[in-house]
Amino acid sequence: MVEHSSRSGSVQDGILLTRAASLLAAPETCSPDRFGNFPVLSEKFSNALLTFAIEQDILWTFLDADDRYLKAHGRADTLETNQSVVSVLKTQSKDNADKLAEQLRNCLRILTTRCEPLLLKGACFIAEEDFKPQYWRFMCDFDFLVDECLLRGCVDALEAGGYRSLQSDYSISIDKHYPLMMKEGWPTGVELHTRCLRWPVQGLLDATELRKNATIMESEVGRFLIPSCNDRIIHLVLHAQLGSNFYRRRVFRLRDAVDFTKLCTSGEPDLDVVHDRFIRAELEDHFLAFVRACEQVTGFSWYPAVKYSKRHSLWAETALKGLEKPETLKVYHIADWMRLGLSVFANPGRWRGAVFSVTNRQRVKRHLERIVRQWRNLNSG
After folding, report:
1. What is the tens place of the pLDDT at every residue in 342-361?
2. Residue 50's CB: how many other CB atoms inside 10 A?
3. How far apart are CA 327 and CA 216, in angstroms?
């Protein structure tokens, strides 16, 4: 077995895993030859690589890609002492995906009695496949967009169905969604959005336009909406580059490359239209830098019609280098926190948004640390 002790090795293998994830997300339109031959993933199995897969939300990709490679080549499992750990993780991941699909059905049965919810992000992948579990897609919550005037009724309906909010502090003028609601026995929480972004961007993700362009889905769980493929890509890019400050911080998550691949191969978006909308919103660099990073990770030219500038390629190179050496991004993080501090002084009304940004990042960090700790306990046992 080949052990990878350095983060560099785990990053390079992680990028290969993301290419494999692209195939898992859209197997009907992709083939392994498209990206070349993958290395024997079992021989590259290591603590560093598994931890990296967890951090980047591509754990199932690692486990499933490894299994598929072995079966395709008629090889016996070579994970040796890691077999028991992998077996537990695969079982947990599969059970979680099955429960997520059933939970989404449950949520929609409740919400469709009060409104026609518009599904966002990961929930769309499950619903558009007739609620088939999407093992390749990590999900930390379900997001629904509802009309502001119907929010209270939707919250009441979920509470009647056993869901409870984890916090009471909420301002509809500042917060983009109602506090996360959880129900005992289900794997994830529910966020009811009244808008997609905390601070709206002119011409992008307007709730009225989203509904106008969406596909109406009639189902046994009720009537709901799924955004157009163009709008889903816009939301994906804005959520990462603007909502999470990834553009300013030169951060790129490998899960986003998997989502982008799925949308491009199964939804047939018009990237020229998407590009034009970002130009009009004066966010062209955010979009092209993101697409360029996806291309470098997946090894495929998703948008051959465009010419990237040096700054777009440099952003992608810097972000991917940051996966290998996070310390290289420290200067961008510091600059962004300084910008955030100055914006609070310039607009005191946004101080709650700044506080939320800090506490939310701490919560996510604690969640990731807990997952890694659990895996390490399994491995040591």
Report:
1. 766 666 555 555 455 544 55
2. 22
3. 46
pLDDT recorded at residue 202 = 84
Contacts of residue 312, defined as CB under 8 A and 6 or more positions apart, other chains included, come to 285, 288, 289, 292
- What residue type is assigned to position 367 of the chain? H
In a 10 Å sphere around its CB, with 0-12 CB exposed, 13-18 middle and 19+ buried, how is residue 252 labelled? buried
- pLDDT tens-digit series, residues 84-93: 666 777 788 8
Reported pTM:
0.79
